[in-house]
Each structure stands twice: as structure tokens, then as C-alpha cells.
Amino acid sequence: MHTLTKYLKFIQIIGTEYQTHVVTMRFNFFIPFLLLLTTNYVLADEEKNNHTNNWAVLVSTSTFWFNYRHMANVLSMYRTVKRLGIPDSQIILMLSDDVACNSRNLFPGSVFNNQDRKIDLYGESIEVDYKGYDVTVENFIRLLTDRWPDEQPKSKRLLTDENSNIFIYMTGHGGDDFLKFQDAEEIASEDIADAFEQMHEKKRYNEIFFMVDTCQANTMFSKFYSPNILAIGSSELDESSYSHHSDVELGVAVIDRFTYYTLEFLEQIDKSSTLTLEDLFQYYTFEKVHSNVGVRKDLYSRDPKDVLITDFFANVPNIIPDSSSENESSNKYINLINLAMDQYNSNSKVSKNKDNALSPSVLSKSQNFNNIEYIEDTRTAISSSIKTLLVTSVVTLLCILFYLQEAESSKTFTK
């Protein structure tokens, strides 16, 4: 409403000086101004929905040495999102076991996801937020819903907002509608679904991309019902998810097939990549994964073909709006109004005599609205205005009624 007030004040200034020409002016000026006014509201709504920050929640729920691959799975995803720019302050890492320090590990302090051991996943600058017995169903639900006691450190909280895109990755042993934690308790699909609904009600996310690698993984998102959630799983109901290969010296499998091919795809991208989530989905085949990967899209508002991988896996600057950005946005459209006014002045059939010329006071007042450079190219903004006009019919109708009333008032004044 603040921007609308500025627009109406601008018209009031012009109308006061040119009461006799408002009716003539409306035909040349009304349409472009209406488009600009409509665009301002549409773009403001789009800006509100755009995400400004990315977070990752990465969870390995298994314990014991023979589940080495699950820790390697989640550490591989951790390395990927960090490589693409998401800082540790926006990554929550939950490791239920520490195989790096297991007495059976021939390479103490290291975890590998390939038998060539070229990349140590546990090596440099790893920050584990929850480990061992702190990785529980209760703590996972508390993390999502932010229901913590006051003394909970901020570094262990998911401090998201309505502009946050959240990538949630879970791996471990599961079954029909459940995932085991620590081989001692289970989380059900309904539990996660209800947690997501609380997040939605509390405006804790913009979009969620949920990925799970476990047996019968696709059942883990069957109960979801909140908006703007996209989910993918490694296997269907009654299907197992399989490991990719083993390390002979370690004596255990070092990564699962679904995660292996996810990483193989992600390794080819950087922060400027134009690859989409649909490209990732098409990369999975039964020949590679040995199970049927499932994707749930019905809750998601965008087509995966239009969603960049970097919308979830890479860093986005956390933009904090301030008064200057609001003024800058307002002035962009005021500049376009001035452009429409120039067009009116050049096309008007009214003779340009002294009575019709803009007075210095009007020029001074109008220039106060035009003190910031264009943010976008004028033609692009006008083109966007035309496209968005169709979806803002209600606002347009209100504007038409307003201007018709102004025109009638002007006719009465001139009589």
C-alpha cells in the first residue's frame, strides 16, 4: 500500500495542475499506468515467494560397523552441498554412528565412498551437529518444528523462514512407511508429514526437497499433505535398495547405488549450472539403481523441468530487505510512469501552449519520484506488465473504477 499511495499522490499532483485535461489524458496515459500499477503488485508477490536462502538437513539413522555405507552416503551429500556453497551454519548433520573412529576401521579418522579412497569424506572441516545417541526421532522432529528449550544452541537449530528452500536427505534401514533410528526406534511417514505441516503453518519453508535412500523408500512420503514439497525415494513398496560396491580391505559396502548415482550426477555441476531436477530424475534408471526410483510431484507447485539443481543444493545469499530496497523498487515503476507521461505529451493533440505546459512546481514534485537509477530495462518491465495483466483482473477492475470516477470528477470540474 505504501507504493500505491505514492502512485496516487503522483496522479493527484498532475491532476491538480491539469484539471481540464484529465479526461483527454486518460486514454493515452491510463493503459500504460494501469499495467505498471498491476505489475508492481504481481512482482511484489513474486518477490515474496522467491527463496533467499538454502538449508540442508542430512541424516544417517543407522548404527554398527556393517552400516558403514550409510554414514558414507550422508557424508557424500554433506561434501556436495558444501562444495556448492551452502555454509555449515545452514547445514544440520546428524550421524548416528562414528565409523571413522571404529576400532575395525583400517584407516582411522577417515571415511571413503569409493574403493580407490581418493576422497576422505571425514577429513577436513566437518561439523557434526548431532551424533550417537543424540540422533533420535524426537530430536529430528524437534529440529524440523523448532520446538526446543531456550538453552538449545542456535548452531543446532534449523533457523529457516518462509523464504527458505530446504533439502532433507535421510538414509538408513526402512520398511513400509517407516525408517529405523539406531535400530531401536522408528519414525513413520505420518510423523514426518505432520512435522512438515507444522513447518508450513509456522512459515518455516518456501519449498522442501525430500530425498530418502532406504528399502521401500517411496512409502516414506506417501502420507505427505503440505504444499510445496517435492519428494524422491530409492525404491518402491516391497523393494530393497542396494549397495553399489564394497571395499575389500574394509570388508564392507561403502556406498548405496541410489546415492552413488546421485553423486555421479551432482559432480558434473557447479554453482552456475543450468541442469534441473528433472535432469536428475531422468538420470536414474533401473539398470543403474536396481530398483524403481519414485518421485512425488503433486504437492509441488513448480514443474521439475523449471527447477534448477542449485535451487536446493547451492548457496543463495540471505537477502535482508531494507527501506532502501523498497524505495528502489518503487522508483523503478515511478520511472516507468514518467516514461508513459512522456509518451502522452508527445502524442497529445492538445496544443502545447503556456497553459498546457508543466509548471516548475509540478516538475519539481515529479522529479522527487525519480532519483534512483533503473533496476531493470524499461522494455523488459513493460513486457512483464503485459504478461501479468491477465492474472490480475481483480486489481485491474478496481483501477478502472477508480479512474472512471476521477474522469467524471474532472468533467464536472471543467463544466
UniProtKB/TrEMBL annotation:
One of its GO terms (cellular component) is GPI-anchor transamidase complex. This is GPI-anchor transamidase. Keywords: GPI-anchor biosynthesis, Membrane, Signal, Transmembrane, Transmembrane helix. Pathway: Glycolipid biosynthesis; glycosylphosphatidylinositol-anchor biosynthesis. InterPro entries: GPI_transamidase, Peptidase_C13. Coiled coil: none annotated. GO terms for molecular function: GPI-anchor transamidase activity. The active site is at H173, C215 (nucleophile). The chain crosses the membrane at residues 27-44, 388-405. Belongs to the peptidase C13 family. One of its GO terms (biological process) is attachment of GPI anchor to protein. The gene is TPHA0H01490.
